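pasting for ref. prot 1 ->
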Amino acid sequence: MLRYTKWVLSRLRSVKSFLLGLLIIYLAMSRRGEENHIDAKIDTAAAAKTTELRYTANLRTTFEEWLKIMKNLDVSKFKSPTSGKSDARKMSLFDLCLADKVQTSEQVTEEEDSTILGEVTGEFPVFRPLIFPPGTVCHDELEIYSVSTKMTAGVASGRTEITFKDNNVMQANLHRGVINGLVRKLRCKYGHCDIVLESEKESLEEEDEIEATYLGQLNVYTGGQPETSLYGWWFPVGGGALYCTSNENDRAEGDSCVYLYADISTGIVGQWKDGHMVEGRPALLQSFVMSSGLLKPEMKILEDREPYYYFQSTNTTIAHHPMVTDIFEDYHVYISTSTIKDAGEGIFAKTDFEVGDLVAIYNGIRLTEMEHRVSKESRRSPYSIHGWENMILDIPKKYQSLKNYKATSGHKANHSKKPNGEYFLCEHPRFGEIVCVYAKKQIKANEEIFVDYGYIEKYLKTQSAIEGMLKFAKHVGGFEENETFKQEMKRTLGFFREKIEDIKPYLAAAKMAKNFLKS
């Protein structure tokens, strides 16, 4: 108990954390007994049996404090509930790579010869990892870029950190090359580290490397494979968390899974298969208990509400149940007449939001850029927005009325040059990869939510510039008939539409020249 107390005190950074730590110690001491044994050393997360550690304070604060602990936890000290379990599955992580030629970061820098992994012995910390170059099995087949661990003739042991080709990271404890115990996965903001929004590129220096600093997953392995009998946590892009058992491919799968929205209050309880929700019921978080070393959410299912089903929209179908509202939005936002004159409807806050909080959800039909360009309705739609992998999300005219679509309301946010909200990519259990609205500043209840439509304005300005250039071309070319000019310029107009991004610098230069002549 003394070692646990020292561990907690060494990590307390605030009065809030201190009070939480005292609560944990008190509950641990008061509940120790032969029949209901609790090993309260959260740094080792030992729990051979389900415990009854309950928190009655703010559940979101409790969860966030626990995540901080788990993110910094030494995975080699996690005492798995399955430790000592006899299991025939023994999959050594690097067996297929023993013939690979590897290099340390120093060898790569100095262009020295590589070494066969099976002959490597030594310790390779995070700042001096072993690197698998292209052409090796680990690099090409397992998509591993580097590993930091203790090697003995190519066999990894102890605390190990693996960096994959997409810069995502896995941290685990290995025994004779086999993963056992807690596995922690870290990801970049939008999952894959090569995904960066255009709006964020300006704030990144060219030499900046995007690092995996977001918690992506926490679950337990036995014999080198996910322990399918135990629950773990997945953390989707955009916030929220999923508590579920795992299949052998390390994806969420089970009949009693719990998804918590980013408010850590509303949620969905139901069946998941291969990482996707099959069917779920809206629910509310009641409490947390400690189970097998990890927090477990206890939920109250709202029986009077309709169930949810996973369906990622297509280019024609926005949702299977477009009138079934989202439980998170039901508790946090509402639609009313906008405070902007003649703007129609707007979206308003039911509750207070802090900076970074999830505010609303933006689902729509999914179009490729080409489908968006050839569709006159989509091109003119005020609701078109860029989503994942250059897909366009849009709300067709049919679904712009609340009489036909209520599943999400993020598209109802109106424009302001001083917005209190902003769009980011997110993952939703019901709609898949979509876009969500997040608080850019503090928002009070009953305030209207605004976002910046700047990207739309830039597009329209570019279109106006193109039209001006075409009018000039018509005059210079001597075309008198509009139809003749349109036929001649049709291909040119199409070319301009395809190359809008390429001509922007020239338009900017022309604007600068115009301003110079005025001065």
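and prot 2 ->
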Amino acid sequence: MINQKNESIRKKKKVIFRRTLLLFLFFFAIITASVLTIYQADEILDIGEQKTQAENIVTVKLENIQTEMSHVTTDLMILSLNSQLLKFWDDTTNTEIMTSISQEFLTTAIYRKIYDQVRLINDDGQELIRINYNNGYPAAVAKHNLQNKKDRYYFQDAIKLNKNEIFASQLDLNIEHGQIEQPLKPMIRIATPVFDKKGKKRGIVLFNYFGENIINMLIHKDSLAKNQLMLLNSDGYWLKGPSPDLEWGFMYKDHKDITFDKYYPNVWEIIKNNEASQFETDLGLFTFKTIYPLLNKQKYPATENFTLKTKDASLKKAYAWKLVYYIPAAVLYSKHKEYRQQAGIIITILFIVMLIFATRYAKIEYHKLHAEISLKKSEANLKEAVAAKDKFFSILAHDLKAPFNSMLAFSTILNEQFDKYDSEKQKKFIGMIYTSIQNTYKLLESILLWSRSQRGTIDFKPKKINLFLLTNETYELLQHSAENKSITLTKRIPENIFIEADKDMLSTTLRNLLSNAIKFTPKNGKISVTAHLIKDANNIPFVEVIVKDSGIGISQEVQAELFDISTQTITEGTDNESGTGFGLILCKEFVEKHGGKIWLKSEVGKGSDFTFTIPLKSDITTI
């Protein structure tokens, strides 16, 4: 008695625990999902703010560079169109005019403070005026120190230009006496031709612009952005990089391989082939825009009527920079760890509160629902058991009655009137009894097999099977039945198609479908079996097998009941062949056991197609 009581208490505690767990999980899942949703929204908002900030930084820096280059071209045009310069070409010996022009050039260098040199060069390449910046102390170079620059590329390219055309070199490092000047001096040479009053080209005005001004624009006050704002040339070399060691690789023979592409290969492909974009990779967030410093598509108020020319063949490629703002993934998601820690604390507190609440609630609800659950469960089990019993005995009684009646009738005749019949007649009666016994045995065997499948006592042993060979074996078993009705059996199955299945179950399925096809196909009919590989909506591979016959077909009403045990229908074949009514039911059981499906397509008088699928395991090679 005590043991029974303890067992009852133990079961009650177990039920309380389950109910508590379910209630807890339900409410905890809802609240946890809400908390996580809020924090996920914060994370998304944080990422969105960083993306917006990145776009704003890139846009502002791009505008700053464009504005700076606009001022440079404006200065160049002002000096090239100087009225004193026009007078000078009429009298190149006039020292007063020369002094005035030199002073104008000097004034530009003094107040702008962005030009290393400002020069006037005649059409023979001879320097007429050269203003050197001299580390903040601009001065004109004495006449006897002026040089001829006719062999320099910038003169040769600039002197070829027409009116209103501007030459610009690449942004690179200044070279003195064949060596890169130290400390490094980034430089752009910008020039335009000058003409006399008659429109004759007389020389060029040339600026050596301090490229460091552009580099300095990219130094951002935000510490996070300090090493993330980069400037690349059209070949992917850093002009301004995360560290000085990576910059100006194209200027050094042993640094030619130091490119953005080497460190970020997939990223560079996107940046190189697009004007502007913002995208995220495993490395982090990249925001970039393309700068055409002097290209007339980016208009400047004072220079929109001028055209950029470079010594490179491709204008767009030669003078395009990529302004890139890079936020590493660790920085991009740095706040997410903080958010998740906060969410973890809140969820832990909620966990404890909800666990207490769920425990108390479960204890109250247990006594109220326990009786109802037990009653419903008992009622359902009883109904299911009664229905199964009634169904089984109804089928069994119905299907056994006919063959037993037949056997009783013929055996009675033989028992009472054996001597009245000749041996031929006796053999006929005995053959009928034998056939009836065979059919009854098949029925009992099918019922037993179905019963075992319902109880789950049939061993399911899938293994690698050659479908072609298995179909051959089935054909050999049924060949005689087909030949008796002059039915042609064909198959279209690749010889090397393999599946993983229980051989007995699959053989039974094929045998039942082919037996039915033979049974309901008239003489001289045709039956075929085909198989091929398919994939379902989830891209899972299956083998689809189709058994097609030219038989009498099946009505829509009968089709709806073929796989239902509770509405079992037995129909004689075209030669009065008998059946058990369990064949298709077993086929359905076995196919579904493999995780497949079975269905049919049929019209009365036009034959039937029975199709079933078997999953193809990933380690099985087929076709």
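The radius of gyration is 47 Å.
The chain has 15 helices and 22 strands.
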